Amino acid sequence: MLKIKPEVILLLGASLWGLGWIPLAYLANQGLAGMSVVLYTYGLLCVLAIPVLLLQRRAWWPQRRSLLLICFCGGWATAGLVSALSEGDVVRAMLLFYLAPVWGLLGGWLLLGERQTPVRITALVLAMSGIALTLGVSRETFSTLSGSDWLALSAGLAFACNNLATRAADQVPLASKSVVAFIGTALLSGVYCLLMDITPPTVGPGVWGLIALFGLFWLVAMSAAQFGFSHVEASRAAVLVVVELLVAVLTAAWLGEREIGVREWVGGALVLIAALLAEYRETPSNSLFCEAKK
After folding, report:
1. Among 5, 87, 191, 244, which residue has the least CB neighbours within 10 Å?
2. What global pTM score does this model have?
3. Total count of domains within the chain
């Protein structure tokens, strides 16, 4: 019997993440952006998340600490990045957030005891180089960090911690791992709105319908990603998810939101090569897309 490999499912989840800017941009045109859209979307998803967690509480209770870590790290990864993109320079925010592969490799090595091979380290270097080319890094990129820059940097670190916690919580049902981050995102975005004195705008039924569709989209993306994080070594997963950035840049260029040149194409090629290297195993395996189930 054949089944799709977790690396492919992780790549699909990351690709959906890369498309997430499209519904966000549309909602922004409807007057809903920043932490407000995060609070509304993930607050709505809590209606689904809370019953799932209650139904599966016996299964995840032995690893409740890991699940709590997923809740807050996954929540801050989303809330912090969206806030940074809303308030600061998008290029700097994306670059600082995508230092996450570095944290993922170090965390997998130091915390989970994952063996780091020359191929894996090479993949990381290629991925970071591809990111730098795609986003256009210059001397000014790493000048004095602003508040929004620190948000993006902390979100990337939280994202890596979320991936490590997901990998460690091997007895927690996938559904619980997928939805618990929604609760953390809603809570942290609500706290952020209170601290920053942000009043979410009033929206009509039509916009609520769009928010619900966006929430469903994100539920599918998160479920695919959490499945991948649960079955792929953290350091390899950290490189594979960089495909999200490539998808975001290419779709932005296709839709006329950003011009794409030789530098972006070279950067994208490096990211793809890094993803293929990260998928490489030292022991023989079957096709990337499926493997035999014995």
Report:
1. 191
2. 0.72
3. 1
